[in-house]
């Protein structure tokens, strides 16, 4: 008999179900097992008088074990589990469990030590399914818009953007680095004539940051496309991409997100508000008495991002806001400049930057000059070669999938990630 998923059970139909036992309760006349699979859970009700063999087999088995039952699902008004219960005729223990080392209110670091057990809860399963759904919605949009999904190398021969904040690894008889982003290779794909590419892939940052939103390894949804007129085209596309992802999530999980995380899934409207950085500084000082610290002038910090969100909600009733016109000293060398102003943006959502994007500089001579300015020419010689033989105007951005889901559900980055990596966390 093939396995039937719990949500697909039909009344009085002979079926086989299997999953984790989340609770086992032994009473005088009955044994009750709450069995959970990826679609839901059901109460398995075992009458001791009529199922002596099954009861004997269940002896000593505790919650966390993986069990299999054959029998029939029946309707019952007395059962809280959706008014359904499973009456078994056969039983098999697929995997017995030891007592869980996780107490109910274990701290986050203990939960990380036993992450595979921690993830068994309905709430955490929903968290991962929501992230998957969001990525699925964005992927579908990219395919609909004729993008090609690519897979770029994560071991690279030169540190991207700069020599700092990269992980160095031994690569046979030479040094290699873990890629900070697929940025250079996305652009190489456009120089090859692909025109529209995206990638969902890990990125690595050797930042010794211990905050609720930083991690040394994360998943990035990267976009790059050619034949744009300005970075406005890039912002327009990101609006559509985020709307597609959030629409998918809202359709499938809005009620469950409200139940488990007490968060509304708000699908934004177009266009997202846009403001120049200097104008934002003025608004924040006028409204909230906030003045940007001297060392952050030309950029934003966490406090600026939080207030930018507050401003967007007050002024536009919108959760998203694009900020443009950053200082060239604060932006990457490959951003195109117009009148010495980088043609790029940051996107703020719920008080946190979720994207940096731009129109890229595609002209070899200009790009090399901007490399020289930052003292990076030697480090990125291989990258400059992509532009020597013709490259169309283009732009792109990246969305940190983990950070986005963190903000959507109101979690910390440790809680949100399948497996968190930070300065002090390399296991499991």
Give the SSE layout.
Blueprint: E1 14-26, E2 30-37, E3 40-47, H1 52-58, E4 66-75, E5 84-95, H2 108-113, H3 115-118, H4 122-144, E6 148-149, E7 155-156, E8 168-171, E9 174-178, H5 183-191, E10 196-204, E11 217-226, H6 231-261, E12 274-276, H7 277-288, H8 302-316, E13 320-324, E14 337-338, E15 341-342, E16 344-349, E17 352-359, H9 364-374, H10 381-384, E18 394-400, H11 401-409, H12 413-416
Parallel strand pairs: 3-5, 6-10, 12-13
Antiparallel strand pairs: 1-2, 1-4, 2-3, 4-5, 7-9, 8-9, 10-11, 11-18, 13-16, 14-15, 16-17, 17-18
Helix pairs in contact: 4-6, 4-11, 7-8
Task: Please outline what is shown here.
With 428 residues, this protein is of the alpha+beta class. 32% of the residues lie in helices and 27% in strands.
How does this model look, in words?
This protein has helices at residues 52-58, 108-113, 115-118, 122-144, 183-191, 231-261, 277-288, 302-316, 364-374, 381-384, 401-409, 413-416, and strands spanning 14-26, 30-37, 40-47, 66-75, 84-95, 148-149, 155-156, 168-171, 174-178, 196-204, 217-226, 274-276, 320-324, 337-338, 341-342, 344-349, 352-359, 394-400. With 428 residues, it is α+β, with helices and mostly antiparallel strands. The relative contact order is 0.11. The protein is built from 12 helices and 18 strands. β14 and β15 form a beta hairpin. The strands form 4 sheets. It has an 8-stranded mixed sheet with strand order 6-10-11-18-17-16-13-12, sandwiched between helices. The two termini are 36 Å apart.
């Amino acid at each position: 008999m093939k396995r039937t998923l719990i949500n697909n059970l039909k009344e009085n139909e002979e079926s086989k179900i299997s999953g984790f036992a989340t609770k086992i309760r032994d009473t005088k006349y009955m044994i009750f097992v709450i069995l959970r699979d990826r679609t839901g859970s059901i109460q398995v009700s075992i009458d001791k008088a009529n199922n002596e063999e099954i009861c004997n087999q269940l002896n000593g088995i505790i919650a966390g074990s993986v069990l299999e039952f054959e029998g029939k699902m029946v309707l019952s008004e007395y059962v809280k589990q959706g008014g359904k219960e499973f009456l078994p005729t056969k039983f098999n223990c697929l995997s017995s469990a030891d007592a869980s080392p996780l107490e109910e209110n274990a701290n986050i670091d203990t939960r990380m030590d036993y992450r595979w057990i921690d993830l068994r809860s309905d709430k955490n399963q929903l968290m991962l399914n929501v992230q998957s759904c969001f990525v699925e919605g964005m992927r579908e949009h990219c395919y609909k818009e004729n993008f090609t999904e690519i897979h770029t190398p994560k071991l690279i021969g030169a540190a991207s953007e700069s020599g700092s904040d990269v992980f160095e690894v031994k690569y046979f008889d030479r040094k290699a680095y873990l890629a900070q982003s697929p940025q250079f290779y996305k652009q190489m794909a456009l120089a090859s004539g692909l025109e529209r590419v995206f990638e969902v892939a890990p990125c690595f940052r050797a930042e010794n940051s211990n905050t609720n939103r930083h991690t040394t390894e994360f998943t990035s949804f990267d976009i790059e496309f050619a034949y744009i007129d300005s970075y406005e085209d890039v912002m327009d596309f990101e609006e559509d991409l985020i709307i597609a992802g959030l629409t998918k999530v809202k359709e499938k999980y809005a009620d469950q997100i409200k139940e488990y995380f007490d968060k509304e899934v708000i699908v934004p409207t177009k266009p997202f508000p846009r403001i120049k950085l200097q104008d934002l500084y003025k608004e924040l000082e006028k409204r909230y008495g906030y003045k940007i610290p001297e060392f952050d002038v030309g950029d934003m910090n966490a406090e600026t991002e939080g207030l930018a969100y507050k401003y967007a909600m007050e002024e536009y009733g919108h959760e998203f806001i694009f900020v443009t016109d950053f200082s060239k000293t604060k932006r990457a060398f490959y951003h195109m400049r117009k009148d010495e102003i980088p043609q790029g943006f940051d996107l703020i959502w719920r008080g946190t930057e979720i994207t940096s994007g731009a129109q890229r500089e595609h002209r070899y001579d200009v790009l090399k000059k901007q490399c020289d300015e930052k003292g990076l020419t030697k480090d990125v010689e291989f990258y400059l070669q992509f532009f020597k033989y013709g490259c169309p105007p283009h732009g792109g951005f990246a969305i940190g999938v983990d950070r986005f889901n963190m903000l959507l559900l109101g979690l910390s980055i440790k809680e949100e990630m399948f497996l968190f990596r930070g300065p002090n966390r390399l296991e499991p």
